[in-house]
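Re-run with default settings, no changes from the original entry. Doing this only to confirm the output is reproducible before filing.
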Amino acid sequence: MTQSTPTFIHIGIHKTGSSTLQQKFRTHPSMYYVERADVRNAFIGHLLDFNEAPFQAETERATEQGKALVMSHERLTGYPASGGFDREIIAARLAKAFPDAKILVLFREQSRWIKSFYQQYVADGGGLTLKEFLTNPQPQIYKLPAFELDYLNYHKLVSLYHNNFGAENVLALPYELMVQDFDSFTTRLNAFFGFDLQLENEVTNRSRPLMPLLFMRFVNGTIGNTQLSPGGFVPLGYLKLATKLLGKIPGARSMDKRISTRFDRLIEEKIEGYYDESNGDLEALIGMDLKPFGYFPDTIEAQMQKDSSPMLGETSII
């Protein structure tokens, strides 16, 4: 498909401030924003039926209006709880439909990402404990896709898009840059897009209270019937609203510190040193030092942060 207008595709990953960026893309006067549902329907699922020229009408309107065509959906990197099994399929589809597009990738230090996404996984209907989530129960069979630590080997994701679109057309940035040095983040982003997005530092989402979340995890795994936990007998559907309502109960955060520390311990035990080589390759691919952002746990900065968080007693509900 020959493009007559600049095309930008933000592919995520999950838990890296996607909602903030999508709101800016949607309202920017120089961008013709394709809604998330349309992006999902065009590129995700329907493994045997793919339209190789989607959004022709949208592209024509963007050209007529002198705007860039912009798409954004974190699901384009594959859903984490299923190990991103369709990641390469989606990348190939994007390249087939928009071969000249520029790609934006945001990633996040793996231990913090796991802790954040696990909470979303439960809100999405998941019923596994954190320990179970991090350990494929039948790795030798793989009858169903599940979360894999390899999903967070970011150098593979960046390399995949370098191969499909060219390294010069891919911008990959750490989410921590957005949080810690917002001005630098926006400068890099605007240089890539060629627009002034006029971003404000709105990365202020507070994490969910953990005790109600774990209660919902128990419900998901026993009586609930969801896409992620289909074994129960009560169809629960999408549970984000329920976790928010439970989070407003007085004392909902009373166990946050204890549970959070247990999460940290489980994650550290599981991934210790696992991502060091991948993160080193990632540094080389994107030309950025990731040590100040905690991507190498043995650095002095990371050790100081770790030592400031005392370990508390374990709890069996996690």
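The first strand starts at residue 7 and ends at 10. Residues 256-271 form the longest helix (16 residues).
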